[in-house]
Design goal:
This protein has 150 residues and is of the alpha/beta class. Helices cover 27% and strands 23% of the residues. Helix 4 packs across helix 5.
Length: 150
């Protein structure tokens, strides 16, 4: 049986699982993330069983640059917790939305971009950050099979 490897510091927790995406809802709940809105793509949602149904709302990221994609959803998000399931564009879009709304971000990456661990992102078009600095995910659920499938 595979187990999670955990790294935590003052700013975030990274959980690494050596295999496919399994039980993402349960993994989020164990970390205190029970109520959330989901930012993703249809393709990524196919890899994460149950995540769509567990989310309060699902926001699909359009195929646009991060500043434009995040601007589409920034006024729609009503939760103080966002889960970003996808590649760098999806995770950066969630971080951009959170920089305006003050939400906390959990990331489930499906590529090997730096987005899940960095605080760098563009801002939504026409908006300024409401928080000090840039946003980094406070929780990362890193499934190796999902991140290396591309």
């Amino acid at each position: 049986m595979r187990e999670w490897v955990e790294y935590s510091d003052d700013l975030r927790t990274v959980l690494l699982y050596g295999g496919p995406v399994i039980e993402p809802v349960e993994a989020l709940k164990r970390q205190g993330c029970e109520v959330f809105e989901l930012i993703s793509t249809e393709r990524a949602l196919a890899e994460a069983p149950g995540l769509r149904g567990a989310a309060g709302r699902v926001h699909l990221v359009p195929d646009l640059p991060v500043d434009e994609a995040s601007a589409v959803h920034v006024d729609e998000v009503g939760s103080d917790r966002l889960v970003a399931l996808g590649g760098g564009r999806v995770i950066d879009s969630a971080k951009a939305v959170a920089s305006v709304t003050g939400a906390e971000v959990a990331a489930i990456p499906t590529t090997l971009s730096g987005a899940p661990v960095t605080g760098f992102h563009r801002l939504p078009v026409g908006r300024e950050s409401e928080v000090s600095g840039f946003v980094r995910p406070s929780l990362v659920l890193a499934y190796t099979d999902a991140m290396t499938s591309a």
